[in-house]
Specification:
Radius of gyration: 15 Å
Number of domains: 1
Order of helices and strands: HHH
Low-confidence stretches: none
Helix content: 55-70%
Distance between the termini: 23 Å
Number of helices: 3
Structural class: mainly alpha
Oligomer: single chain
Number of strands: 0
Largest sheet: none
Strand content: under 5%
Mean pLDDT: 83
């Protein structure tokens, strides 16, 4: 792996996150905070996005 490969991965990650954020604008607040699978206690969309973004900092 070289520097160009690493830059490509970072660029893809940025692109993918922008697409996800754009789609988050299309959900209601209720959908954003609703549990994905209540019977399993899965996190909601907000928690899932927080988890992903917190790992990037």
């Amino acid at each position: 792996m070289n520097i160009q490969d690493i830059l490509l991965i970072y660029e893809y990650n940025y692109w993918a996150n922008q697409r996800v954020l754009a789609q988050c604008k299309n959900v209601t607040l209720e959908q954003f905070i609703a549990a994905a699978e209540p019977q399993r206690g899965s996190p909601n969309l907000r928690s899932a996005r927080q988890s992903v973004f917190s790992k990037e900092i």
